[in-house]
Design brief:
five-stranded mixed β-sheet; Carbonic_anhydrase_sf; metal-binding; Carbonic_anhydrase
C-alpha cells in the first residue's frame, strides 16, 4: 500500500491537484462534527451535508461515542471551540454501526487469540482500565448519539452558548435524521455529576 500511495501522491502534487482544496485551519461554517470512522461515511457524509474542504472540523472515532469527558475526542472538541472559532457541534451516528451491541468479552477473546497475554489484561484491569467499560458499545445509534450529546452539553469546559445537535445518518443514502436540536439547551444545562478525578485520560 505504501508504494501505491506514494506514487499517486507524487503525481497529485506534481499536477497541482491540491489547488482546489487549499484553505486555512479555521472552519468556514464554524461547526465541528463528531462522527463515526465507518468507511461508508468517508465521502458520503461531507457530500450529504454539502461540506467542502475547509468548512468543518471533523472528529472521528468508533461509533461517534465519547467514552470519557477528558479523552482525546473531547479535547479535540474543546480545541475546535476555543482555538478554531467553532460555534456549533454536530454529533452524527449512523444506522448499522459496528459499535451497536458490541460484546466486550468477545473482543477480549480476540485480544488473547492475537497474542495479547492474560497478564497484560490483568495489569490493565488492576490499573483501573475496565475492559467492560472501555470497549462498551450501545444498543442503538440514537442511544450512542444522545450519550455523546449529553456528555458535551454537560461538560464543565463547554460554554453554554454552544448548541450541540444530534443526528443519525443512513449510511447508504446519506439521509440525516435530526434526533436532538440543541438551540434551546443553553437555558437548561446542568453540570455533570461525573467524578472526574476517578477517570483516567486516554
Amino acid at each position: 500500500m505504501i508504494n501505491e500511495i506514494l506514487a499517486f501522491n507524487e503525481k497529485f502534487v506534481q499536477n497541482k491537484q491540491y489547488e482546489s482544496y487549499v484553505t486555512d485551519r479555521y472552519p468556514d461554517k464554524r461547526v465541528a462534527i463528531l462522527t463515526c470512522m465507518d468507511t461508508r461515511l468517508v465521502e458520503l457524509l461531507p457530500k450529504a451535508m454539502n461540506l467542502r474542504n475547509g468548512d468543518a472540523k471533523i472528529i472521528k472515532n468508533a461509533g461517534a461515542i465519547l467514552t470519557q469527558p477528558f479523552g482525546s475526542a473531547m479535547r479535540s472538541i474543546l480545541m475546535a471551540i476555543y482555538e478554531m472559532d467553532v460555534q456549533e457541534i454536530f454529533v452524527i451516528g449512523h444506522h448499522g454501526c459496528g459499535m451497536t451491541n458490541v460484546d466486550p468479552d468477545s473482543l477480549v477473546q480476540k485480544f488473547l487469540q492475537n497474542g495479547i497475554s492474560e497478564e497484560v489484561l490483568m495489569t490493565l484491569e488492576n490499573s483501573g482500565i475496565r475492559m467492560s467499560r472501555f470497549l462498551k458499545g450501545f444498543e442503538s445509534a440514537e442511544e450512542g448519539v444522545m450519550h455523546s450529546v449529553d456528555m458535551i452539553r454537560k461538560h464543565p469546559l463547554v460554554p453554554t452558548g454552544i448548541p450541540v445537535h444530534g443526528f443519525v445518518m443512513d449510511p447508504t443514502t446519506g439521509r440525516l435524521e435530526l434526533i436532538h436540536e440543541g438551540y434551546n439547551d443553553k437555558d437548561s444545562r446542568k453540570l455533570s455529576s461525573v467524578n472526574y478525578k476517578s477517570i483516567p485520560f486516554d
